[in-house]
Amino acid sequence: MQGIKKNMLEALRKHTPDHIPVWLMRQAGRYLPEYREIREKAGSFLSLVYNPDLAAEVTLQPIRRFGMDGAILFSDILVVPQALGQKLEFIEGEGPKLEPIRDVGGVVDLNFAAFDQTLSPVYETLKKVRSGLEGEGFTGTTTIGFAGAPWTVACYMVEGGSSRDFLEIKKMAYQNPELLERLMDILVEATAAYLVKQIKSGAEVVQLFDSWAGAVDAQHFKKWVSLPTRKIVDLVHEAYPNVPIIGFPRGSGVNYISYLQDTGVDAISMDSQVDTKWAVRVLQSSVPVQGNLDPVCLMAGGDAMILAVEKIVHDFSGGPFVFNLGHGIHKDTPVENVQMLVNTLREMRL
């Protein structure tokens, strides 16, 4: 809509927003009673993800309640391997389970035959979110799409689910790097295509979640994290050069620097372990930054949270900045703490 200022987009384009933009990773989730009602109605997590009406509704819930500056698509990073043919289920209390890929046969079995058809409900959700934002008067809210970065998605695909030590994928990286490269090439192609179609369906910004980037040793960080991400960034920018791409290499430590240099992302999201003053010097001097309140600090609330918010805003006040958490919001976070966070930010100025 012509003439509407979107503060998150303004910050990501290095312009001056009217207020501090804020959205939260996992802002549509179990801490909200209205989300829990929809989740029960859907019957299962994947049924909710693949129901455009319900997925759009839960995407819009935190916008209605808090007035967030970004509405992030409700979905999951593992829809990509599922769309490539890998068996996926979510088990209550355990999380995602996939049929693990441990040999060349598992990689060969991946294919694009049902890729677009499987993911078509996700694209429909984005269209409904964009339409819903405009229809409900949230014309200043930015629509955010996302995907998992290849390394993190490969971790789930090879391990067969979440992992503490990433033993299987690390063994593959050391013992059979050619096989892992084949898997990563497929994920680069799939992820780029997925993000391009998200943008075509209404996403104005996309974020690449590399939640397990910190599991890669320093010697191989560029090979398995940065370079696959760079290929995706180039492919998406080729189709949509003006759509910002946010990278989130969680747990990367000093590798945030090389990640930024090697990937070409337009902005970088930081985990809570990143020192804000360091980030101002080495990250924000180049690109807009996003982050990085500890989700447990938000869950605790009170004066400690307000002081932490004030410090983050103060430290990043000299450059382009979007407020967020250092990881996803915890399911036990009191709703009133999120409201307090937003109210605090609205009273502040960069």
How many β strands by DSSP? 9
Spatial strand arrangement across the major sheet: 1-4-5-6-7-8-9
Secondary structural class: alpha/beta
CATH class: Alpha Beta
Q: What is the rounded Rg?
A: 19 Å
Strand % is 5-15%
Our count of domains comes out at: 1
Give the CA-based shape. Answer: globular
Average pLDDT figure? 96
H/E series: HHHHEHEEHHEHHHEHEHEHEHHEH
Number of helical segments with 4 or more residues: 16
Largest sheet: 7 strands, parallel
* CATH level-two architecture: Alpha-Beta Barrel
Which stretches are poorly predicted, pLDDT < 50 over at least 5 residues? none
Separation of the first and last Cα atoms: 26 Å
- CATH fold call: TIM Barrel
User: Could you estimate the helical fraction of the residues in percent?
Assistant: 40-55%
How would you describe the overall organization of this protein?
The protein has a 7-stranded parallel β-sheet with strand order 1-4-5-6-7-8-9. A two-stranded antiparallel ribbon has the order 2-3. The longest helix has 24 residues, at 177-200. The chain is α/β, with parallel strands linked by helices and 350 residues long. It is globular, with a radius of gyration of 19 Å. The chain has helices at 7-12, 33-42, 45-49, 52-66, 79-83, 104-108, 115-135, 150-159, 167-175, 177-200, 221-239, 255-263, 276-284, 295-300, 302-315, 335-346, and strands at residues 70-72, 88-91, 95-98, 142-148, 205-209, 245-248, 267-269, 289-293, 321-325. It is 51% helix and 11% strand.
